[in-house]
Design goal:
Blueprint: H1 3-8, E1 26-27, H2 37-43, H3 53-70, E2 76-82, H4 84-95, E3 101-105, H5 109-120, E4 124-128, H6 138-148, E5 152-156, E6 158-159, E7 164-165, H7 169-178, E8 182-186, E9 205-207, E10 219-225, H8 227-234, H9 247-254, H10 266-282, H11 284-304, E11 320-324, H12 331-342, E12 344-345, E13 347-348, E14 357-361, H13 369-385
Parallel strand pairs: 1-12, 3-4, 3-5, 5-8, 8-9
Antiparallel strand pairs: 2-10, 6-7, 9-10, 11-14, 13-14
EC number: 2.6.1.44, 2.6.1.45, 2.6.1.51
Family: Belongs to the class-V pyridoxal-phosphate-dependent aminotransferase family.
InterPro entries: Aminotrans_V_dom, PyrdxlP-dep_Trfase, PyrdxlP-dep_Trfase_major, PyrdxlP-dep_Trfase_small, SP_NH2Trfase/AEP_transaminase
C-alpha cells in the first residue's frame, strides 16, 4: 500500500468475492416472478451490437409481439430501456408538460407515484378520490372531469398495493375522451396476466414492467402509444425534462430510421422477446384464463385456511392476491419464516396497507398449480406456528 493510500485509508488489495450463488427461491410475491427456463437460456446467447442488422430484426419482432400482447395496432410500441418505473416515467413525462393538468387516482400506492411524476414533469395534479381497496367509480370520475377539465387522465388497471382490478375501463376512457383528455393506463401487474385490450378499450398510452406476468427479468419495459398521444409528444412546446426518456428521440431508434440514441440492454431485449414468444405460443386469451384458473385455486385455498381477501370478488385481481393479516398474527414473522424455511417469497403491504395485508403474486411462470400447493402448505405451517387455526 502506498503511503498516500495508507493516509487515506484505501486498501489496494482486491476484494475477495466468491462465486455468485443466490438462493433458489420460489417467487410468489408482487414481483419479480419466477423466470421461465427458456428466458434464462435466451439471456445466455451471444451479444451483438445494438445497431447490428440481426438485432434490428429482433427489435422488429419484439415490437410485433408486444402489439399482440397489448392487443393493439399502435406503431409506437416499444420496450423502454429500464425497469417498469422507466416506462411509467416515459409515459407521464412525455404526455404531461408545464401548463397541463393531470388527473390521478387516490385508491392505491401507484396513483401516488403517478402524481409525483406528473409534478416533476411540471404539470398540475388533481385527484379523483376512491378508498384504498376499491376501484374508481365512473360517477366520481365524471365529477372530477367537470370540475377540473384535465388534459391527461391516469389510472392503475391492476393496483399492486391493494389487489384491486379496475373494472369498466371503456367507461372511464369514454369519459376522458368526451373531455378531450388523453388516457394513460398503468398495466404493470396486468399485461400478460389479466384481460387487457388497449385499442378496444380506448387507452391512449399503456405501460408495464416485464418482471410480473411476463416472467422476464426487469430491464426492458413495455410501452405503447397511439397516434393521438404520439402527436402530442411530437408537438410539445417544451422538450421533456428527461433526455434519456424523450420519446421524440427514442422514436428515431425504435422507428423506421434505427438511428443511434443509446445502447439498448441487448440481453434484456433477448429475454423479453423469448418471454413474449411464450405468451404468443400459449395464446393471450388462454394465458388470461390460466391466471384466473390457477389464482382461483389459490384464493379458494387461502379462504379454506380462514383468511380473508382484501378485495371483494368483483374487483379481485388474479395476478396479485392481497390477503388480510388475521388479528394476533405478526405479518413480518410469517414472511420471514416462509423465506427462511421454504425459500418462498411473499410480501407485506405498501403505504396505507403496510402490515395489514400480505401480497401473494400468481403471475406468469409462477402461476402453476404446484406453486399454489406449496405456498398454501407453507403458509398453513407459518400460521400454525403463531397459534392461528382459522
Amino acid at each position: 500500500m502506498s503511503n498516500r493510500h495508507a493516509e487515506l485509508g484505501i486498501d489496494e488489495r482486491p476484494p475477495e468475492v466468491g462465486e455468485l450463488t443466490p438462493p433458489d427461491r420460489t417467487l410468489m410475491g408482487p414481483g419479480p416472478s419466477d423466470v421461465h427456463p427458456r428466458v434464462l437460456r435466451a439471456m445466455s446467447t451471444p451479444l451483438v451490437g445494438h445497431l447490428d442488422p440481426s438485432f434490428v430484426e429482433i427489435m422488429d419482432e419484439v415490437q410485433e409481439l408486444l402489439r399482440y400482447t397489448f392487443r393493439t395496432d399502435n406503431k409506437w410500441t416499444i420496450p423502454v430501456s429500464g425497469t417498469g418505473s422507466a416506462s411509467m416515467e416515459a409515459a407521464i413525462g412525455n404526455l404531461v408538460e408545464p401548463g397541463d393538468t393531470m388527473l390521478v387516482p387516490t385508491n392505491g400506492y401507484f396513483g401516488g407515484r403517478m402524481k409525483s411524476m406528473a409534478e416533476r414533469a411540471g404539470g398540475e395534479v388533481v385527484e379523483v378520490s376512491a378508498p384504498w381497496g376499491e376501484p374508481l367509480d365512473p360517477v366520481d370520475l365524471e365529477r372530477a372531469f367537470a370540475e377540473h377539465q384535465p388534459d391527461v387522465f391516469g389510472f392503475v388497471h391492476a393496483e399492486t398495493s391493494t389487489g384491486v382490478l379496475q373494472p369498466n375501463v371503456p367507461e372511464l376512457t369514454d369519459i376522458a375522451h368526451d373531455h378531450d383528455a388523453l388516457v394513460i393506463a398503468d398495466c404493470v401487474t396486468s399485461l400478460g396476466g389479466v384481460e387487457l385490450r388497449v385499442d378496444e378499450w380506448g387507452v391512449d398510452v399503456a405501460y408495464s414492467g416485464p418482471q410480473k406476468c411476463l416472467s422476464c427479468p426487469p430491464g426492458a419495459s413495455p410501452l405503447t402509444l397511439n397516434d393521438r398521444a404520439m402527436d402530442k409528444v411530437l408537438d410539445r412546446e417544451e422538450r421533456p425534462r428527461s433526455w434519456y426518456l424523450d420519446l421524440s428521440l427514442l422514436e428515431g431508434y425504435w422507428g423506421d430510421d434505427r438511428s443511434y440514441h443509446h445502447t439498448a440492454p441487448i440481453t434484456n431485449v433477448y429475454a423479453l422477446r423469448e418471454a413474449l414468444r411464450l405468451v404468443a405460443e400459449e395464446g393471450i386469451e388462454e394465458r388470461w384464463a390460466r391466471h384466473r384458473r390457477v389464482a382461483g385455486d389459490l384464493k379458494a385455498g387461502l379462504q379454506d385456511l380462514g383468511l380473508e381477501m382484501n378485495a371483494p370478488d368483483e374487483y379481485w385481481l388474479p395476478s396479485l392476491n392481497a390477503v388480510r393479516v388475521p388479528d394476533g398474527v405478526d405479518d413480518g414473522a410469517v414472511i420471514d419464516r416462509l423465506l427462511d424455511e421454504y425459500d418462498l417469497e411473499i410480501a407485506s403491504g405498501l403505504g396505507a396497507l403496510e402490515g395489514d395485508i400480505w401480497r401473494i403474486g400468481c403471475m406468469g411462470y409462477s402461476a402453476r398449480p404446484k406453486n399454489v400447493e406449496y405456498v398454501l402448505a407453507a403458509l398453513e405451517d407459518a400460521l400454525a406456528r403463531q397459534g392461528f387455526d382459522g
